Amino acid sequence: MNEVNKAAQEAPLRKRGRPRAGQERDDGAASVGSLSRGLLILDVLRQAQGFMALSDISIEAGLDASTTHRLLQVLTETGYVVRDDAQKRYLPGPRALSPLSLFHPLLQLRNEVMPVLKMLHDEIGETAALILFLGRERLIVEFSRANNQLTPYYDTWLRSPLTGSASGKLLLAWMSEDERSDLLGSGPYTAHTPKTVTDPVALLRDMDTVREQGFAVAREDGFQGIVSVGTPLVFQADGQPIGCLTYTALSAALTPDKEAEAIAKLRDAANFLVIGAPALQAFKNWAPRGAGRR
Fold first, then answer.
1. CATH ID of 20-97, from 1.10.10.10, 1.10.10.60, 3.40.120.10, 3.60.10.10
2. Taking a C-beta distance cutoff of 8 angstroms, is the pair 124, 261 a contact?
3. How is the chain split into domains, by residue range?
4. Is 132 in contact with 138 (CB distance < 8 Å)?
5. Domain 105-285: assigned CATH number
6. What residues form DSSP beta bridges with 91?
7. What is the phi/psi pair of residue 185, to 5°?
8. Does position 292 have pLDDT exceeding 50, yes or no?
9. Greatest CA span in the chain, whole angstroms?
10. 49, 56 in Cβ contact below 8 A?
11. Burial status of residue 252 (CB atoms within 10 A of its CB: 0-12, 13-18, 19 or more)
12. Is the distance from CB of 234 to CB of 115 less than 8 angstroms?
């Protein structure tokens, strides 16, 4: 009798109950692995322009065909993937494309903020965006694109350099020094362009200036030829930003002499939204940015 058959026969004789510690770790690791692979497949499908065959999904995800097929079955059963049985192809399902309730405050906020972003775009002619701070991450809620070909946002999860973008500087500025150090490291920081602040002492001075003046400017700090300016979204009772409004433009279009005008318009719009956008209130409790943060 080989070891596999022997283990299979002995398994029913073991006492039922809580799994052994080693087994718990193995099962937990397997579950985490399956989850991460399933999320990877969803990302592949969401980025596709149409139906995808199993073989194409397997190649794009870097998984073997059997694992891909098994995970697609689970995702189909739970509504995250749609399968065309006739062609044996797959699309992201309703729960993957629109996971939020129609009454979720994020969707309501998008509706409330879009007219304001359109107004900001019309006044300056550059891309205007509302970004929420969720812990240490930045979520793009909505944006109004400039008339030129510049499209600074391709995903709702904003991952531009923290030290090289207006939104990143505004997120960092209201963190404690310990939080910034934990997030960025001890320095020197990565230089994305020749203008990136890489020295921790210089960054500390920069963050103090951002808080004092109430806005941030990143002129070619993260990307050459690109400038972003931003003002925080702050409820006065809290004193901590829950997000920001930003302009992003080509440096040649939004020159330094135009920064003051852009910042003034962003500040007026931010004050209006804090007072006039009911859905924004819901996000006060989403990010751990209370008065005790500093």
1. 1.10.10.10
2. yes
3. 20-97, 105-285
4. yes
5. 3.30.450.40
6. 82
7. 95, 180
8. no
9. 84
10. no
11. exposed
12. no
Is the pLDDT at 45 greater than 90, yes or no? Answer: yes
Nearest-Å Rg of the Cα atoms of the chain is 24
Residue 9's pLDDT is: 39
- The residue count of the chain comes to 294
Q: Which residue's entry shows tokens 């692979």?
A: 37
Q: How confident is the model at residue 154 (pLDDT cuts 50, 70, 90)?
A: low
**Higher-confidence position of 292 and 168:** 168
Query: Which residues, in sequence order, are CB contacts of 152 under 8 Å at separation 6+?
Result: 127, 129, 160, 226, 228, 248
Euclidean distance between CA atoms 112 and 281, whole angstroms: 12
Instruction: Dihedral sign for Cα 244, 245, 247, 248, please.
Output: positive
Average pLDDT over residues 221-248: 92
Encode pLDDT of 83-97 as tens digits. 999 889 999 999 998
- DSSP assignment of 67-130, as one string? HHHHHHHHHHHTTSEEEETTTTEEEE-HHHH--S-TT-HHHHHHHHHHHHHHHHHHHH-SEEEE
Please write down the HEC assignment for all residues of 167-216. HHHHHHHCCCHHHHHHHHCCCCCCCCCCCCCCCHHHHHHHHHHHHHHCCE
Q: How far apart are CA 62 and CA 122, in angstroms?
A: 44
0.85 surpassed by pTM? no
